[in-house]
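#lab-general

N.A. 3:47 PM
ok so I finally got the sequence cleaned up, no stray characters, all 89 residues accounted for. can someone with queue access submit it? mine expired

B.Y. 3:52 PM
send it over

N.A. 3:53 PM
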Amino acid sequence: MEILACPICKNPELELYIFKEDEIEIETGLIVCSKCQRYYPIRRTIPVMLPDDLRKKEEDLKFLSSYKEKIPIEILTEGKPFSLSNYSN
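B.Y. 4:20 PM
back already:
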């Protein structure tokens, strides 16, 4: 986490939410930029820190929906680039 920064606003202050981990790695989680409120899923130990135009909306919304009880409400409703506010599962 010390070497990561938001690829959009370059903010180095990122929040980490761990959903599943083993002894060595974070398997599933979420990285959130405290400045621009963008979130980046961690899937299969890999942080997916892509710019907005390369992200897949349905994948991101499915991820948010799957872990919504562990994700801050601000990200679920106002996170970028996509939020659950206009999505029904």
